[in-house]
Hints:
CATH class: Mainly Beta
Oligomer: single chain
CATH architecture: Sandwich
Helix content: under 10%
Order of helices and strands: EEEEEEEEE
Low-confidence stretches: none
Structural class: mainly beta
CATH topology: Jelly Rolls
CATH superfamily: Jelly Rolls
Number of helices: 0
Largest sheet: 9 strands, mixed
Mean pLDDT: 93
Distance between the termini: 31 Å
Strand content: over 45%
Number of strands: 9
Amino acid sequence: MEILDLEKSKAFIIVEIIEYVPNSVVIKTIIKKTTGNVSVVSIDSGEMLSEKISPFDSFIQVIDGKAEIEIDGKNNILETGESIIIPAHSRNTIRATVRFKMISTIIKSGYEE
């Protein structure tokens, strides 16, 4: 996972900072803090992020293409511009039947209560 060194207070086009790589999943972290992180991800057709369970909520926004996101056995198809929140402690898998790019935002604070 690569951490990008983007210039703060300067606009950029998120979909252009990551490329598709054949037969690969590419993850570039935009912001990484102890309280959470924001990453941009490209997933080539036929690839996937293996099933996992996170102790935190994850906000996923598709910025190019179409994603298949399974949450606790329920399949969701998201297209460009659509978003979903993966609840904490939910079993989830992210697949690419066609290639896509997404922003993943994980907030690690607020679970102490």
